[in-house]
User: Fold these one by one.
Assistant:
Number 1:
Amino acid sequence: MNIRNMLLTAGAVAVLAVPAAAQVVRPKISLAQAVATAESELGARAYDAEFDMDLGDMVYEIELVKNGKPVQVRVDANSGRLVHQSRAIKARLPIVGENLKAAQIAPRTLSQTIAMVEDATKGKVAEIGLERRGGRHYYEVELVGAQDRDVLVDVRTGAITPLIGD
């Protein structure tokens, strides 16, 4: 075996020996697509969504409100199919009820809000969740590939504000 063949063989073995954890695996569908699927299949309004690894499977965990009640779903990040649905634990905190109501009456769906933010920032939404600050409801958004990594989106107006030092 000449030196060239030995180097090629060694290179091939090195590539095959790379651990699976070091390989970057990306979802085939976006967070916006997963949210749109969950909203349309359940006839509900999403208010929180994030990517998660669930026992080695890539999923989007999405919280929605339907008929005033919270619902949690998981959407497979490769196929885009709903893989799990459950009712959220009933919490008797007033803020939870306010968040659910704000999500139901918001002028835009969460998937529309994600599209709006991605268009305005030229980034990709990695995580988005509803919260209340100063008596108003906002989506706190974590972005990838945008100048501002975290932004707030006013639920009513759609105004996007960068979060500084948060």
Number 2:
Amino acid sequence: MSANEAAKLPYQPAHEELHYINRSGWLRAAVLGANDGIVSVSSLVVGVAAADPTPSAVLIAGFAGLAAGAMSMAAGEYVSVSSQSDIEQADIARERQALLDTPEAEEHELAAIYESRGLSPATAALVARELTEKDALGAHVRDELGLSEVHAANPLQAAMASGLTFSVAAALPVLAAVFAPEGRIIPTVVVTTLVALAGLGALGAHAGAAPKLPATLRVLFWGAAAMAITAGVGHIFGVSV
């Protein structure tokens, strides 16, 4: 193969690095849904049990919390991420119009961005010109707005990840209450919840290739605090919360 032919081939990196940032969207929603499912439903079960330890009351509260929470999480994620997506699309539309109205000013703006990142003025101007010729909108969306396919908002993905993981996670404290020995609902649910939270923290960290211990301790601390406060309210006031 000649040097000219080799130069025409697409660029191939010397080595490919494994990154996990492309998981950030669904992973954030999944961890949020699972954590909320475990914490909110277990806190609800513990709070109700502290006020009224009757198994029927505890189970009704648990199943109601699971159903309502799953729908709330899915709807909340969809609405909030849709709002983010609307903002992103509006900014892209404004950038597209600016490129039509003032292309030279937009190219200078792009060059200024590259210069602020450490390139010399001449190199920044050259990079801005070549990227503008290839894909002006893509360059501005990526480097001016800070958006990319990896970080783009995906409402449906977030809603499904959050709602599904909430349902699966919330089922754990409910099942713990169902199979708890008579008069032992609260300790059974608490132990089950703490184990589930520890597993969630470690699993979320593993999925994102992040340190497991800080994630696990963080999830455990806030989950235990939520259950303690809710149980305290239920015990003091004798009402379900």
Number 3:
Amino acid sequence: MSQVALNIERVTSGYKASVVLRNLSLSIGSGEAVALLGKNGMGKTTLLKTIMGYLPAKSGAIHVDGLDITRLPPHRIARSGIAYAPQEHALFQDLSIRDNLRLGLPRVSVFNERFAEIEPIFPVFKTRLKQDAGTLSGGEQKMLLVARALMMRPSIILLDEITEGLQPSVIDRLADALLWERGRHGTTILLIEQNVPFALKVADRYAVLKQGEVIEQGDAKHLGAAASIFDHLRV
């Protein structure tokens, strides 16, 4: 593995007295994409919220490029170079597309430069920057979440079920966007997915989470990976 970008070491986390993650360890190399798979309720979203500081780790440590972020507040973690696209639509519905995209930028003056980079991937926004985000379709809102994350030029992107409820054409566009981002900026990606074909297209490796623990990891391009993953995702 290349230099470690995100290192999760024996992390236990959950909600108040309820433990969801149990001594979970996972390392992701710089520029690598890892798909975290598993049935609902296994702790996938809990892991992302713990990384971002929305849930405190009860034990263990999380490092980003060697920096210990375990006890940092969410805004400090975001400033360390992590962008998060949550499963729920975390958009400002009454603000324009432009204003949503501007959130998280280091300064307003870089907007045109950053938008020019992502516009070929998300051409739907080119002539609609003044439109309120709340008027977009579900698929367009998902694309806006990803576009906003890319505008930040993060070193790490965390993506939670971004394909849920989307049409195949939109899913293909999101896959292209993530592959483009990795190719151009070497961004590290951790994505949670139920859509296994999408996950295997984007990711280098997969990890399967069951009852708060990583029970299997492997090469996402391995011919036998899909069958093994589907076994773990059966209800």
